[in-house]
Structures are given as C-alpha cells and as structure tokens.
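Here is a complete protein record:
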Amino acid sequence: MAENTVPQPLYKKYLEGGGEMGELIRTFDWSATVLGTPDTWPQSLLLTLSTMLKSRFPMFLFWGKEYIQFYNDAYRPSLGATGKHPTALGGRGEDSWQEIWPIMTPQLERAMRGESTYSENELVPMFRDGKIDDVYWTYSYCPVITEDGTSGGALVICHETTSSVKALKTVDDTITKLQFAIEAAELGTWDLDPATNKFVGNKRTAEWFGLPHTPDIPLNNAIEAIAPEDRERVGNSIMDAMKPGADGNYDISYTIVSQQTGQRRIVRAKGKVIFDAEGTATRFSGTLQDVTDDVEMEKRKDEFISVASHELKTPITSLNASLQILQKLVKDEPVSDKFKMFTAKAGNNLNKLVHLLDDLLNVTKIQQGQLALSKNRFNLTELVKDSCDHISQGNDHEITVTGEDELFVYADYRRIDQVLVNFIGNAIKYSPQSRKIDVVLERSGDDAKVIVKDYGIGINPEKLPHLFDRYYRVDALGHQFSGLGLGLYISSDIIKRHDGNIGVDSQWGEGSQFWFTLPID
C-alpha cells in the first residue's frame, strides 16, 4: 500500500453520496489513469473529493501534473446537455478545455505554486451543446495542499453568472437608450428623496437652475432658483402630490431663474410619487421640459386672438343688427319662400358666429384676469329648469330635470347659465343617436351639484384628463364635431371662480356625465 493512502475499505467513506457525479466517480475505471485506483489515492485528494461531492456549490478539481478532472453535481449543468460531460471526468484538463486552455493554464500554475486567484463576472467561452458559448463566471482557483506540504491540485470554486451579466448588460443598454432619448428630447431629470429632502438632477437640470452638478442638492437650494411668484405654488404642488392617499401625479409649469446667470426659463415639471404600503412617500421622480418658446408663442397667439376678436365684434354686431331688421321686413313684406329660407339660414349661421366670438372674447378675459362676476342669491333649481325649457324648444331631445326643488346659491346667474347651456349643448352634440338627456340636482355635503347625463358616444378614457384644456376638442368613434374647444375651458374657469368643482365621468361608447358643484348659500 502506498504511503499516505487510506486503508481499505476506509477510502470508500470519502466517496459516499454526491448524486450522479458521486456514482460516476465510484464506478469509473481509475486504473486506466495516472492516478490509479482510489485505494491508492492520498488522503488530501479523498478529503477534497468528499467535501466537493457533498457541497451544493459548483466545484471543479484538477489533480496532479496532468490536471486530471473531477466535478460535482452542482457544476454539472454548466457543461450543458451535450459536450464535455461525462468525458471530462478522469480526463486531462488540456484535452477537455482546448478552447480556453491558454486562459486556464496561468491560473492552474499559480494554484500549483500555492497561490490563489479570484475573478468576478469573467468571460470564459466554453464549448457546450454543440457550440462555443459566451459564459461568464465568478470563480476562485485555490491550491489543495498534500501531506508533504506541496500543492497537489487546484480546486475551482465557481458560480456561472451568465444570466446576471446579460441582465445587467440589458439594463445598461436600456439606461443608455433612455439617456440618449432624454438628451435627444432635451429634458432635465430630477429625483427627490422625501425622507431627506435631497434633490438630484441631471446635468441639464443643474445648468437650468444654476446649481452645481453634485450628487445631492438640498431642496431649499432648488426652490430658491424658482421665481418668487411661483415658489409657494410649486411647494404646495409638491406637498399635495406626496400626501397619503394622493394619486402621486405631479404636473406644473413655473419659471426658474438661474442662480449663476440670472436667465429666466419657463419649465414644465412632470413627475410621479411612489408610496410604501403605509402610504408614505418614498420616492419622487420626474422630468423638466423647457417650454419658454411654447409659452411665448401661446402669448402671441392669445394677443392675436384678442385683437382679432375685438376687431370682429363691431362688424359682426352691425351685421347682426342689419339681419334682424331684414328678418322683421321678411315677416311684414311679401317675399318668396326661398328668400325667407335663406334669411333664416343666415340668421342661424350668424348666431353661431356670435357664440364663437363670445367664446374667444371670454378666453381673452380669462387670460387677462378680467372675466368679471356679478353675483346674487338665487335658486339654482329654477335656473336649471328655465334653461332646459328654453333649450328644449329648439331641438328634438327630451331633457328631464329631477332632484332638489330648492338649492340656493350665491353666484353669477348668467355665467352659471352659460356653463349649463354648454353642458347640455355638448350632451346634444355628442349623442346623435340618442334623444334622452337627464339633468339631476342634488345636495353633496355643503354644495349644490348639477349633473348632466347623456347616452351618446362617450369619451375615450385617454382624453378625459384634457377635456377642460384650452382649445381641446373631442372627436371620437369616427365623429367630427364643430367648435373651438373653448366651452369646457371657459366653464371650468367660471366654476373655479365660484369656489366650486367641475368634472366628468364617462365610458367610451356608453355616454357621459358632466357635473359641477357650487357652495350652497
């Protein structure tokens, strides 16, 4: 028996277990190799094999000058379904790993000199499943010390990280593409930590605010770059977005003044708050868009509309007066039916033009803060009934009014009637296949609520958030409707000036329900 070998049958204890690879090692014909039969193996080899076979972590052992190979069940899947397994067992390392032997040799030689190596997420291509695969590993070569104090082999403790590395590369590629898109769109990005009030922005955001591009910027420093007239509004919007129970959406435009150059810039900030299970804001991130040019263009458009509206008002008023005289003459004078028909059509079209002009003038007043209110106390129910009776006389729709008989409010009678007429007009316009409209009056806490419900085409959910925007028009389900897209914008401003709320509930293809509230007097 060779010196330092384990007596028979004790050596078999070291090779017990190990699953598939344990069975293969026990039944392998080792007498045909330079190692000889297991009963002649040194205890250091048997002990290392025992540890390796019982481990659930991938391990590979090279032993002796020929680098004879062993591996465990945990390593087995990395060899693939076809290729090196099971021929690698008991074979020479150089024969099994020809494709990467130049990479492995220096590390094996270091281990045989008693040194260890470590590599993380290293690309080590290997032949498996009929092809060369790009495989990534985190591994360590360490020496196995024999009974005489020298290194008898190299134990490779390893973990294949191919999927993780590829996932990280995918993330990196996605981040690169996202950064490219952000740069192409000329957007600033920002991130706020609600717990610390630390504000982080990309380079563009820092430049716009005139702040140093550092990892963390105190929120107060960022707020100081906001124009004084907008600071309170921005601060309130941030707090509202982070309130427990809020939807977390943040969308606001404001002016910033660079703390370095003094340049003024109007930006639109859009963001989203993330809440934890307890409803506490944990993250607040978003983008900044420079809308200075858009705002200036909007101002010039508003100025043009204002001038054009006032210039058109005088001739249209004169034309309306002349047409009214003509309509009176038609009633009294003997004229042809065609003349009467065309006079009536001209009157209807002129009324539409007058309504459009009134909308444009109202928008101008809203933009200039000059939309005056003349408030008095009245019964909202009576206003609704009178308005519905008047509208019913000119169309085929059946308008039903139900609910409270008395709801007294302190408001501008004419402006509230304007809102109601707009709601009912839209209900008629957007329900061409239905003739039923329901108007409901109810108490909602300390408010009076008016609901106008139609049974028409409904509104696409994607368009609901924009309905009360200026110049926004809804064309849905193939229908095209006339109008400037100003009625709901004006109605929204009127209701808000009365400290009320306005909104809409709709199912696409199933009708809409517009509503507004006013404080009960």
